[in-house]
Structures are given as structure tokens and as C-alpha cells.
Queue: 4 jobs
Job 1
Amino acid sequence: MTDEPQANPENSPLEENNQTDQSWQTAQIDSQRIELLIRRIKTQIHQYVVGQEKMVEQLLVALITGGHVLIEGVPGIAKTLTTKLLAKSINTNFSRIQFTPDLMPTDIIGTSVYNLKTSEFNFVSGPIFSNLVLIDEINRAPAKTQAALFEVMEEKQVTVDGKTYRMEEPFFVMATQNPIEQEGTYRLPEAQLDRFLFRIKIHYPELHEEKQILERFKNQFQPNLDTFEAVVESGEIALCRKMAEQVFVKQDLIDYIAEIVYQTRHNGALYLGASPRASLAILRSAKTLAAMRGRDFVTPDDIQEMAYPVLNHRIILSPEKEMEGLQSEDIVKQIIQKIEVPR
């Protein structure tokens, strides 16, 4: 089920990997630092992944912002490979969980095991106790198992037998799902979808990208990931988050975000609008995107670009609009076009 067995959280090796380098702790805040870090990770990933620039960028935005990501796309377009490469690019712990219909909550968070020598119950942690967690085919597990993720994704902690176990930072969940497969799958509840910062929808590569893929692997049947090395320390991710927090947002842009989300609650095409959690998600991710692009201020373009992945899984179309074939992204686009852009 997982790549490596996980240790007891009270004596977890995660703490050793989260020791931030002193030079980074005392480094001067500089937007160029985050640009260099992002470039290093992207260069590593694109050794094996052709295209999918938007997915990679949004994954990095979510990682630095501190949110989780749901990646949706048909099989075979490098969803799992990209997330594994991102995890390998960072010098931290990584685990992978394959969701199946018979998966139980204890298979994820762990369970208490009776110790015959001490006559006590000891908690043995599950694969969720890691820094970067990849959940493959998240919609294959039933509701009871999905509910096990609610607390850990929102509060970054697990409560078992009345005791709370905190996750080590960074804690980043990347989940994948196939949008067209229905056999043996379960629809994710709205409460769980809302815990994902983004839903990233990815599509087939363009023709020229398909040719690049064939050219790159024409003499190699399987990509060799053994030589793939980490290029970023976990402490650098923490510093980038602090840098992103300091990005300036004008008051009229705050009002702009509020108006976009407010309009989702008063739109005849929508059965359910977005909550204040969506407003905060747009604000935080727009600040991170600005920092990643070397700016210390947010622009309306940053907000518009982040509105799509933040809102597309948080709003529900009315039955009539769904029958017409509209997508949630179409409604978000209409809302953005209707609202006057701040100058």
C-alpha cells in the first residue's frame, strides 16, 4: 500500500528532516529566492514530464501555500508520475496510498496494537504520517474511509483513542482521480472536496508534446527514477511560505476577491456557491503565485488565474445548466467577465 513503513509519530524520523538550514532561517526575504527554488524543481520534473506546465505550477503554488490538491484527468497523462517527481524533488518523507473499495480508515491513519510485554496499547501510525502524501484513485474508497481524511487534511492532526497526533510540516496531500470511470468508484462528498485548495483538471498533451514524449523515450522503455535527486530542503519550502505571506495586496483587490466569491452565491446557474474558505484560498494562492513570479504585490491577473482551480470544485451547477452541458469553469469565467477589474 505504501512505499515505506511509517514510524510511531511520537518517535517519528520526520522531525529530523524538518530541521531548517540556519542560512535559510536568517536569509533576507527576497522574491528572487523563491523564483530560483521553483526553477530548480521544475527543471527536475521536466526531465521526465513533457508539457503539463500549468499542473506543475499549480502543484507548487499549493505546496507553498499549504493547501492540498485534487488532480483529475484520464489515465496515462502523468498524474501519478508528476506528483511522485515533485515529492522526490524535496528532501523530505513521502508515502503513497492506493485507495481501493476494501480500504479501511485504520489502513490510512493507523491503529492501536496491544503489546503483550508491556500490557499496554501502542499506536502504530499509518501511511498518512508523512510530509508529502500521494493518494492514488481517491474516489475508489467508500465514505467511511474518505471521512478518515477530514480531520487530517483540515487540521493537520489525527485523533485516535482520545489522543491527538500532529503532522510534521510540510504536510501536503496530492490525490488523483479518473473523471470518466464509474465502476467501483464513489463520489467525493462536498465537505471533503472543500478541503482541497485546488482541483486541477488536466487534459491530453498537444500533438507536438506527444511527439516529444515519443522522442524522449524511444530508446528507454521505463524512466529511470533512481538517479532523480532532491534539489530542495523542506526548510526552504517553509521560508517560501513566509515570503508569500508578505506579498502586498491592495484593498480594491481584496474587494475584488470578495465580489467574485459573493457572486457565486447569487447566480441563477448555480445550486451551491462558494464559502469564505474559497475567498481565503484565492487570496493566499494569488499571493503565492505573485511571489513565484518574482513580484511582491498581487495583480488582478493573479486573482483571475487562481479563481478557476479554487472554485471549480466548490460550486455546484443547477440541474438545468448541467443538462445544457455547461462546466463550472464556464460559470466562473462569466462571473469574472461581469465584474469590473480594479485599476
Job 2
Amino acid sequence: MKYLEKYLSENNIDAIITTGPPHSLHLIGLKLKKKLNIKWIADFRDPWTDIDYFHQLPLTKKAIKKHHQLEQQVLKNADATLVVGETMKENYKKFSKNIHVVTNGYDSSENEKNNIVLDDKFSITHIGLMNSDRNPIILWKALAELSEENNAFKNDLEIKLIGKLSDDVIADLEKYQFKNVQKTNYVPHKEVQKYQRNSQVLLLAVNKVPSAKGIITGKIFEYLQAKRPILAIGPEDGDLAEILKNTNSGIIVDFDDKEAIKKSVLNLYKSYKENRLEVSSKNIEQYHRKELTKQLSVILKQVVNS
């Protein structure tokens, strides 16, 4: 606060943007707004009290109440609020009069069209952390049943999990004894892009938590860039489902609908066997970071000139 107050007083700054999490940064913006009356945009890349793990934090009732109060103070005092999806916007509308959806996005890779050789196996790849809330138990059950019912499927299936796995994910994989499982703890980002582009199917598992409807994991936008079929598990009426629908980039199945997952996987597998497993995605350019920056520049100018 002291440093920024001095800096803003001595320099000709039009506006400040605070971005969270950590949402404590918004409290700095709130204090600067009250003290200097500077134009201020509060950017929420994740919700505050609706974030997927909030219900797991060891907080007292008093502390929970305080979190809600601080969140509302930020929303009420910011000149504009940025959120990543429509559910967040709807939840915040009662506290903020000037709220905009600016999603996360992807950057172009110079080599994105080069060296694309699809995996020989029917690979289902998940990139990123897979914690307990994100463990797609119903998918493991479905894949195990399909492997039992279809020996060719069993031999062709390859599960690739790139990123840290929780103990229960590892336990489930061992329980079902899948023939081909590749577990890789960490790879550089360029390697991640290669895994995404070369995979037959990209798996997206939404956290099974109270706020699941509003969760849009950042990896969805890189998945879109990879242009491989996406199989998502999560709310069929959520923000992620809307993105998949609008971009024609994949399918989403509800957390507990095993039969629908089996049917979806079998359809993907059939296309794989017929050598025609591809996706005709559309409208993904809107998620390029250049387009998102353009949106942000318009909002910033409106705030400064208001």
C-alpha cells in the first residue's frame, strides 16, 4: 500500500487492475480506490467464495462471513469487474453494476501445425493436476467395463495422465488394472502441446464440487487449439458445456452417467478404428489472447473515460 500510494501519487497512472487469486490483491486495490479515488478494475480469474476448494478450507463461521463481506466490498467499489464465465457474472451481478466476461485463452505456437503424428493407440489424455475432486471415477468404471466387453478395445486403449495425480486416482487405476497407462508427473509446456496435438482424445474432468457449473478450467482453451476431440465430464448445463457446444469441439457427459460415457467413448473408438477420428471445431479464434487483450483494452478505455 505504502509503495503503491507513493508511486501512483508521483506518476500519471490512469487506472489500476488487480487480479486474483490470490484475492488478497483486490484488498490492495480497494484501499487504493478509497484513498486515491483512482479508476480500478478487479479481475477474477477464479471466484472467491465460490472457488472449488473453498468448502474444504478449515474456516470458522466468522471467517467465512468475513470472506463474503470482503468479496462484496471489492465488487461494490471496483469501477469494473472481470470474470471468466457467465455463471460467475450471474452470481456477481447483484454486487457489481459493470461486469464483463473475459475468458482465459491460448497463445499461438509457431510449431502448432508441424510434426503432428497421432498416437497409434486409442489414447485418452489428461493434462494437468488430477486431484480427488477431479478424479473421474465413473470414467474408469466405464473404461474397465468396455475393456471387459471388447478385447480389441482393451488392447487399443492407452490412458495418458500428464501432471500430478492424487493417491485415489492412482489407486483406481491400479484397481481396474488397465493394460496401458502412462503417468508423467511433469513435462515442459512445449511437450504438453505435443501431447495435446498427438492424442486421439483429450480428457477434461471438472471438479465434482458445489460450484462445478461455473468451472471453466484454463486447459480447455489449449485443448481447443490442439484441435483434437474433447471428452469432458461435468455439468451438462454449465459454462464449459456451452463453450464445447459453441465451438463444436467435443462432448460433455454428466458426472454419474456411466452409460452415456460408455456410449460416447465407443463412438470415439469406432471413429478411431475407421481412421476418421477428428473434430471440426469453429469459433475458437475468440479465445486467442490477442482477441481477449483487445476486449480488455476496450473495457479499460471505458473505465478511464467514464
Job 3
Amino acid sequence: MTPFCSCSAVPLFIGFVESGVPLGVTFSFLIASPMVNEIAIILLWGMLGWQITALYIISGLIIAIIAGIIIGKLKLEGEVESYVYEMIEKIKAAEKAGITLEEEKQTPKERLLSSRDYTFDLLKKIGPYVVIAIGIGAIIHGYAPADFLIKYAGPGNPLAVPIAVLIGVPLYSNAAGIIPLVAVFIEKGIPIGTALAFMMAVTALSLPEMIILRKVLKPKLLAIFIGILAVSITSIGYLFNAIIYV
């Protein structure tokens, strides 16, 4: 229910990992937060009806849960950049030595100051990547004509769903920004599965998000994350198209 875009979910993702939340669980959040939230639900319901909205919510949650389970089972904690786990190691070392951490002795005011310092430190690490990533997404979004998807992923093309996913990856938007465009695509004859696969790719598998995540994840884990999401979104797109045309 958190109304975040993919890029703004990354700092929370980092915070969860540093706090010791299992890696698979954090990835489930990273996928579900931008893809399925109250903004997407309200807009989809108003534009496309409750049936399509329900299918979208269920499929989005299934993708997030299954992806999280798979990544958790693969035991890929070593594929996260070392600085992310510094806090966990600090806590483990303190517990082993029977030492109470300074953070646990802090007053509310000291905790606020500590949180401020942590925020600035995190911004220094990933802030430039956020700016670069959003800039790239904005440039591509501005130069991609509205009929681009209609031309290359229109009805009758058996490869329309993976093409829609590939077109959506370089773009950057949240649910509120992309749903009106999806509604236009559907009105112009794009199959619902293809249009929603495009939406999922933009919100949960965007190039800007991958640029930011590279600061946190090593290439192997990033590639696994992209692969699982791409296959899942494409499968959901084909499933939606099959349901609509049966």
C-alpha cells in the first residue's frame, strides 16, 4: 500500500536489508510497492473496471511473492554490496560480545539527529545515481512517441507482449503517470495483457531503477532480479490476453 515509484522504494529496500530483513522479503517489497498500490488500484478501477483491476492486483502480488521466494531460496546475500551489510555485522558483533549499541541508548532527539546523518550519508551514496537514472528515463520518455507501442506491439503480433516489456524498460514513471497512457493504448486496440505488461515493466522493471540498484546489488543478483521479473511480467501479459480472447 506504499505509493512509491520504483526509484523511491530503493532507499527503503536498503534500510530493510541493513535491518536484517531477509533478502527475498525485501525484493518482494521492492516489486510490490511501485507495481501494486492504492493509486494504481483507484485509477485502474476508474478507467478499466473492477475485473481488470482485480486481475492486475492478484497477478502483481503473485509476481512479487514468487520472485521474493525464489531469490530467498537462492541464498544470494553475498551478491549485495558490502556496505549494505555493515550495520548487520555491527549488530551481530555487539550481540556476540554482550555490548549494548550506542543507538539503543539514544534519546528521541539523538535518534532524530542520527536518522538525519544516515539519510545524508545514504543520499551521498545513491543520490547521483537517482538523478542520472531519472534524467535518462525522462529523456527517453520525452522522445518516445505515443504511437510507438501501438506500432510495434499492436494486435495480431505474437511477440507483442515481450516487445511491450522491452519498450517499457527504458522509461520511468509511477503508476499515476502511466495508467492514463495504458488506457489510451487499450482504447486504440492494444490487447489488455500487452498494455498491462507494458505498465508493469515501466513501474517495476525500469532502466532508471536498475541503474540505482546497481549501486546496491552486484551484477549477478541484478541480472537474476531482472530475469525473474521479465519472465513473470511477460507470462502475465500472455495470460491476460488469453483470458480476454477466450
Job 4
Amino acid sequence: MTVVVTLGRVLLDSMAGYALARLRFRGRSGLFAAVIAVMAVPGVVLFIPKFLVLNQLGMYDSYLALILPLVADATGVFVMKQFFESVPRGVEEAARIDGAGTFRVFWSVVLPMSRPALITLTILSFQGSWNEFPHTLVAVQDPALFTLPRGLADLVSGSLGGGTQFPLKLGAALLATIPVAVIFVLFQRHFIRDANEGAEKG
């Protein structure tokens, strides 16, 4: 779930951010305002609507219910849009003169220059999806589909039976923390330093 959600967010958030930053189309300002508005809505408000939509579409209690609602993220779109606006337009214009289309400019020219923002988005997406707990409460009820945070919550709530079982609970919590810590340590030096860094390297 974490791998698919992270890949989906990096791809879709980047494409949406580029469209909002560079493409001119009717309703662009309203769409960006909607993205900002979504960021301001507390996640708890969406619990019941999310459950109703998943149930109505027949996706409840499935891997699709765990993954699909999380593959796009308003915060990621905002971060990528702000970064893409810092990329010099001259680079894109030169690519267009060479015959590159919109997607080719995005994929082959702008995206490679956006490494700091992409790595930041990857870290945030991995951490967010790995630690996601509230969404799993309304998306699945089959124990076979529980993610690690949901499983830990089930563990703490007494699924082990009698006794406190503190060593087992703490060990499970440690194992749940390790992947996020490893990802952050590996990529921390890339965690956005300067919005113009990617453009300067390009």
C-alpha cells in the first residue's frame, strides 16, 4: 500500500502541480483555490462521506479502498506547483523550440530539474501513507487488510488476550518506526534546501 500510494502521489501530484503552474486553461485559479480549501479541511470531517462513497462504489473492505483515496494529495500538489513556478521559463521555451510537446517538456526537462522537491514529496508521501491510521478505520474491517498502524492499534486494544504484553507491543512499535527513519536518513540531505536549487542544476 505504501509503495503504490507513494508512487501515485509523486506522479499525480507532480503532473497536477505542473498543470497549475504552467498550463493556461479555464478555471485554473478556481481549481487551485479548491486545492487550498482541501488543505484547510480537517480529515476527521471526511470520515463519514469517505465511508459512504467507498461503500456506494463497492470498494469498501478492499485494497482499492486502502489505496485509491490516498494516491493524490492536496499538499503535494501545492508543494510541486510552488517549485515548478521557480523553474526558469526559458528552459521550457528552448525545449519547445526543439519540438518538444507539453508532456515531453514536463517529463524530460522540468521533472529532472525538480529533484529536491520530488525527494521531499517522496519522503512526506512515504511517511504519511506508512503511518496512515484514520483512513483504514473507514476503509477496511477485514483483519487480513489491516495496515501496520491499524494492526498495532488492534494489538494495543487487547487482541493479544490477557496481560499487558508491553515487550511485544514496544517491539512492534519499533519495527513500525524503522522504515520511515531509514527513508528519512537516506534522503535527508535532499530535503528541500532552496526552491531554486533544481533550476540552477538544470
